[in-house]
Inverse folding.
């Protein structure tokens, strides 16, 4: 009996691939985009896959804020590889148009369930990070309205409700995501003094980073610090010092229902929650050199027990009259099901990663069956492959 | 249903028999019980013939076209009972095939006859539905009670029309084109009411007092926008926007005549109220209009703010504006941007029309895409063109591939 020494060239190649972003690949059927740099993606890259290096992942904290299924995929494959699709390039195109001469561009990503709204959203966020935008991402606006951790009545404005937990989460994420621009941000100064309490105050000319630190330190001041920060960021982007991107996933929840009760026992409308109020202020036409990237998700309107009503996916339906009046004129960016090209790419990727367990899934007939069952829907296809 | 024996017994290639005739379906079936009684000496007088038939059976020189089982012996002196035929003819129900002519089979209006009509239908009250197996269509008196229109199949109607066509002139083309206008002029009102017949002590039915009246708004002679909007707001649910008809359904009075009079009252009231102009109508606000207009909307204000801001900042920085260039290039530099200026601008007019369509109609993915196109035209940021597919199009059934490529799922 002979023993064969198998040279682990294949494994070494895969390992090496991880460390360098543009290393050689032995993936036979997956086509890569021309670059991994999102700033230089072109229309001919549509339908091809590109890699997000680990530095970007940790820099943007994406490993914590991705949607659940994609996060699991990230942990499984230990790499972030995703498709460049049409909505990706649409978002990047709109962000390229950001300029000091024009007011903020509002984009609303809409589409059916599972067609890649959140993923396109994060692709846009990655592009903005590379293009040196200051990022203020809200991972989940539905969370802001519906999870009730701790609330306090606002001191600054009577009737408003502060949510320090959410404010501090936002500030920590802001801090993490803008680490590379932290020095620049510390050079930017506040316009006026903010008197928080008898003891605390932030003087005029203090760096913006001080606001963030104060908010993270003191929970009672967190929401107000966030509000002040938002105001200052808008002011500085209008001046032209920074480019600002407000990215909100499930943004239609900003105009939806809340679960926060007032002292009277009634539900507080979303107008009265300060964090939501601060984010809504970004939808005005008064600030320049920035963009708002929003996602319209129907999870806000769908009820788990109601099996009969089908909420629509379109922006007007999800945002409501007031939301559309605040946002108009906005650019609706649609996400659709996979095209034939895109389906092949993802299929080959899963095949390459040995993710398809059933041997019949590797055959041509199996592929046709997967097409039938998933109807080219990205979410459905991903779930099918996980169980087959 | 009877199992058809449609095959040719002798399997000749041209399907014809030795006499050159096509195979014809046999509608006769043997009465096997009778035959059994006949052949097994049930009828003593036929015993003699029985012997003769048996002998003939053994004989080889008989005519081979007729199957032996169907060969009947010549019976001369048989008991009266045995004169019953050894065959029975199939019911008309079983004698028809889909290729045959139905109007000949059921030529006129008649009560339902299960022996003639081959449909496997039954009409009855089932106390325990699901527990009783479906029965055949025979002995079903309920089917006799209802009218059947089996004599009015499309082929029958067509044939009837063809037959009497020579006595008719063609339908006037002018009426066809102006169908609605013709109807509004000569038959403006459609009134519907029903009569009910009961097989019981009482002949009354309270549903017979409901009256439905359908008419168009032509006779109302609505001139301007004020009258039209007031008419629509007063009519409410009774006005159908798609079919442009006004319908009244009334059953609040005891008799039909009273309900008809009430409808007359409603029409006169509606007419007189729309024509009247009250002083409080001038207090109408934006919230009272039926359609959302672009002029006076918050979007218009925002657009003015945006464009004015861009103009100002691009003048300050001496830069060409990046976005909204299609609009701004047509406005002079020094001209102050106000609502009036924008309302004359053709690009903004185009956008406002698209905006009104989007806001006033029910939202569908298609309307959103149209709106996206219009906003992009205004902004000057075009959509990205997807390069053509490099993959060979795999032939997948049920057009799921077409769904993917058209992306309209």
């Amino acid at each position: 009996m002979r023993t064969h020494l198998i040279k682990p060239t294949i494994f070494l190649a895969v390992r090496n691939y991880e460390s360098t972003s543009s290393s050689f690949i032995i993936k036979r059927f997956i086509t890569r985009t021309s670059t991994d740099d999102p700033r230089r993606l072109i229309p001919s890259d549509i339908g091809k896959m590109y890699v997000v290096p680990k530095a970007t992942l940790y820099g943007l904290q994406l490993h914590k804020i991705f949607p659940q299924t994609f996060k699991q995929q990230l942990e499984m494959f230990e790499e972030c590889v995703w498709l460049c699709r049409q909505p990706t390039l649409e978002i990047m195109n709109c962000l390229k148009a950001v300029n000091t001469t024009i007011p903020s561009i509002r984009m609303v990503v809409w589409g059916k369930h599972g067609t890649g709204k959140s993923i396109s959203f994060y692709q846009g966020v990655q592009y903005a990070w590379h293009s040196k935008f200051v990022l203020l991402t809200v991972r989940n606006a539905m969370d802001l309205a519906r999870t009730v951790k701790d609330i306090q009545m606002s001191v600054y404005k009577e009737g408003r409700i502060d949510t320090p937990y959410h404010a501090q989460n936002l500030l920590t994420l802001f801090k993490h995501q803008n680490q590379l621009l932290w020095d620049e941000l510390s050079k930017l100064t506040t316009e006026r003094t903010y008197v928080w309490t008898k003891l605390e105050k932030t003087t005029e000319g203090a760096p913006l980073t001080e606001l963030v630190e104060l908010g993270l330190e003191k929970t009672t001041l967190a929401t107000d610090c966030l509000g002040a920060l938002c105001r200052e960021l808008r002011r500085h982007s209008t001046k032209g010092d920074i480019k600002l991107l407000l990215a909100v996933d499930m943004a239609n929840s900003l105009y939806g229902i809340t679960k926060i009760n007032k002292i009277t026992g009634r539900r507080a409308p979303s107008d009265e929650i300060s964090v939501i109020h601060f984010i809504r202020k970004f939808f005005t036409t008064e600030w320049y050199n920035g963009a708002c990237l929003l996602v319209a998700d129907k999870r806000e309107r769908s009820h788990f027990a109601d099996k009969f009503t089908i909420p629509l996916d379109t922006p007007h339906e999800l945002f409501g009259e007031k939301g559309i009046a605040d946002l108009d004129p906005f650019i609706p960016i649609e996400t659709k099901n996979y095209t034939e090209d895109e389906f092949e790419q993802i299929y080959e990727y899963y095949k390459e990663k040995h993710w398809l367990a059933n041997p019949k899934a590797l055959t041509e007939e199996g592929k046709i069956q997967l097409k039938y069952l998933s109807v080219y829907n990205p979410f459905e296809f991903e779930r099918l492959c996980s169980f087959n | 249903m009877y199992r058809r024996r449609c095959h040719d017994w002798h399997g000749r290639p041209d399907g014809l028999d030795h006499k050159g005739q096509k195979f014809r379906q046999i509608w006769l079936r043997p009465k096997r019980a009778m035959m059994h009684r006949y052949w097994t000496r049930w009828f003593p007088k036929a015993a003699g013939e029985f012997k003769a038939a048996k002998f003939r059976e053994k004989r080889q020189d008989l005519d081979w076209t007729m199957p032996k089982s169907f060969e009947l012996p010549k019976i001369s002196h048989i008991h009266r009972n045995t004169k019953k035929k050894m065959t029975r003819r199939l019911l008309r129900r079983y004698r028809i095939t889909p290729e045959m002519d139905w109007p000949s089979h059921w030529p006129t209006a008649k009560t339902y006859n299960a022996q003639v009509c081959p449909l496997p239908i039954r009409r009855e009250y089932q106390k325990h539905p699901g527990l009783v197996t479906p029965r055949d269509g025979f002995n079903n008196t309920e089917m006799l009670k209802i009218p059947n229109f089996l004599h009015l199949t499309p082929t029958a109607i067509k044939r009837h029309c063809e037959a009497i066509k020579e006595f008719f002139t063609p339908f006037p083309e002018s009426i066809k084109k102006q169908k609605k206008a013709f109807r509004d002029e000569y038959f403006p009102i459609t009134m519907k009411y029903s009569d009910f017949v009961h097989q019981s002590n009482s002949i009354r039915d309270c549903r017979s007092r409901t009256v439905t009246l359908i008419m168009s708004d032509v006779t109302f002679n609505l001139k301007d926008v004020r009258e039209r909007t007031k008419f629509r707001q007063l009519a409410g649910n009774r006005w159908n926007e798609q079919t442009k008809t006004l319908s009244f359904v009334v059953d609040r009075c005891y008799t039909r005549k009273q309900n008809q009079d009430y409808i007359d009252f409603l029409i006169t009231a509606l007419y007189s109220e729309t024509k009247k102009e009250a002083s409080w109508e001038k207090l109408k606000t934006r919230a009272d209009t039926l359609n959302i207009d672009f002029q006076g909307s918050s979007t218009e204000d925002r657009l003015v703010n945006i464009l004015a801001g861009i103009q100002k900042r691009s003048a300050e920085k001496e830069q060409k504006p990046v976005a909204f260039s299609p609009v701004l290039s047509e406005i002079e530099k020094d001209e102050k941007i106000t609502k009036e200026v924008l309302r004359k601008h053709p690009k903004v007019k185009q956008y406002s029309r698209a905006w009104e369509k989007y806001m006033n109609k029910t939202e569908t993915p298609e309307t959103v895409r149209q709106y996206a196109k219009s906003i992009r035209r205004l902004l000057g940021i075009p959509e990205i063109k997807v390069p053509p597919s490099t993959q060979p199009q795999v032939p997948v059934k049920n057009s799921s591939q077409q769904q993917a490529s058209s992306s309209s799922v």
